[in-house]
């Protein structure tokens, strides 16, 4: 008896499945199209980076990486990320606090302004600082008279990177904190906590995974930014060359192994970012609002 | 205890017991103004001080017009390709179960995470006449690297996750009962997809298209390696800005940047209208 019910229900399930699913052939065609497309457009460039980097073996690869200019580029990239990511982290938390915990006029407009850097070409993000601090500007020569160099120096690179990575943390936190509401903080305050305590002991634990997620994406972009940084850097080897810019220089010198060796470090960074991002999504998906969609 | 009436005059902020509004909003606005607003205003101001005749001369310069055409044209084609394949990828990822689905799902974000310069040199090497893919296409007479087609390839790479990540959550939300209802009413699977599912996905597809397109228009790093950068043929507008800057021609760089910003802004506005229309029409 039980067997009969089972078979009939499984047959029913099959019928139901065929009515709301594509035929087997269609499914195979769609999957072939999707996998083929991804293999050609995503997988092959990634594999190629490592294949080209190790084309002549391990030794030329490590030699390219311990090159003085390469090491300088790596250090500069780490320095720029170490300054710009915390800046945008503090901004992201502050902006999300103001936007998510309070109701005020012009909020939607403020969110639009925060998103603005995403819709500006990286080249234009660099250009605006060239116009602001360049030789033809008012500010540039004035600062220079005090010995402060912005353009074609580290501060300019940091500014351009901050501009480009500006929205990452904020736009990750705003929907998350809006969803969480103000109940927890109100409870903490009514129990005698002050504002900072409410933030440290209540808000921060609530948003930590979302925050980490935003920082992860922000950092990946900060270390990999090319267009904006290229415009303000001046490409001085060993001084104002970040890793992506160094990749360009080596590539244009026909030093393929060198270019792809540095590129493989950046690709490795991208892979680590993707793995951590996926782990965060799987383990703490509920604690990361807006984990889908950018 | 008094409860204030809701219309007790205009107030900037609703009352709240939570502290820190002044501090956080003040800091956010100051930072936003310093990093984003002042520099962008500087660009517009510089552009305005050019004067109309100079601006018009730069805007109608044949090289500028060609570069803008190439940037917007290739971004349009790449976004269209991404809409088709991105939707298929999203569908396969949500609806089908297969080993390694999680890995492939994570891979879709690669273009977000991979620095554009790395993508640029990798794609160029792939599609060069001796590259893995280029050598397969060369006998067919198809040249990709150092042609406008190369720009399209780079922009397809850059734009793909925008389409997948906007369409995917909407497919996840589709109520299967709707499909069942259509099926019980005698709709074929094809009819269910084209008449029932697709209209529901249309706004997300339009959004994905807009995001991919906007990103493609401004893209620089991945394109300049593969494009060949021939003036009038494969020179994109962002590159022309960089070239003008290197010639210390700030006026031209500023003018082209302003034109790009205005066109992108208008197109996003149109797409927003289109989106709200399609939401009304199908939603």
UniProtKB/TrEMBL annotation, chain A:
It comes from the Bacteria. CDD domains: TM_PBP2. Residues 74-275 form the ABC transmembrane type-1 domain. One of its GO terms (molecular function) is ABC-type sulfate transporter activity. Keywords: Cell inner membrane, Cell membrane, Membrane, Sulfate transport, Transmembrane, Transmembrane helix, Transport. It comes from Mesorhizobium zhangyense. This is Sulfate transport system permease protein CysW. One of its GO terms (cellular component) is plasma membrane. Its main location: membrane. InterPro entries: CysW_permease (IPR011866), MetI-like (IPR000515), MetI-like_sf (IPR035906), Sulph_transpt2 (IPR005667). It is found in: Cell inner membrane. The lineage of its organism: Bacteria, Pseudomonadati, Pseudomonadota, Alphaproteobacteria, Hyphomicrobiales. The complex is composed of two ATP-binding proteins (CysA), two transmembrane proteins (CysT and CysW) and a solute-binding protein (CysP). PROSITE patterns: ABC_TM1 (PS50928). Part of the ABC transporter complex CysAWTP (TC 3.A.1.6.1) involved in sulfate/thiosulfate import. Probably responsible for the translocation of the substrate across the membrane. The keyword Membrane applies. The gene is cysW. Pfam families: BPD_transp_1 (PF00528). The chain crosses the membrane at residues 28-51, 72-100, 120-143, 150-170, 254-276.
TrEMBL record, chain B:
Keywords: Membrane, Sulfate transport, Transmembrane, Transmembrane helix, Transport. It is found in: Cell membrane. It is a multi-pass membrane protein. One of its GO terms (molecular function) is ABC-type sulfate transporter activity. The chain crosses the membrane at residues 21-45, 70-94, 106-128, 140-164, 196-214, 250-274. The keyword Nucleotide-binding does not apply. It holds the Pfam family BPD_transp_1. Residues 68-271 form the ABC transmembrane type-1 domain. GO terms for cellular component: plasma membrane. Its main location: membrane. Belongs to the binding-protein-dependent transport system permease family. CysTW subfamily. The complex is composed of two ATP-binding proteins (CysA), two transmembrane proteins (CysT and CysW) and a solute-binding protein (CysP). Part of the ABC transporter complex CysAWTP (TC 3.A.1.6.1) involved in sulfate/thiosulfate import. Probably responsible for the translocation of the substrate across the membrane. This is Sulfate transport system permease protein CysT.
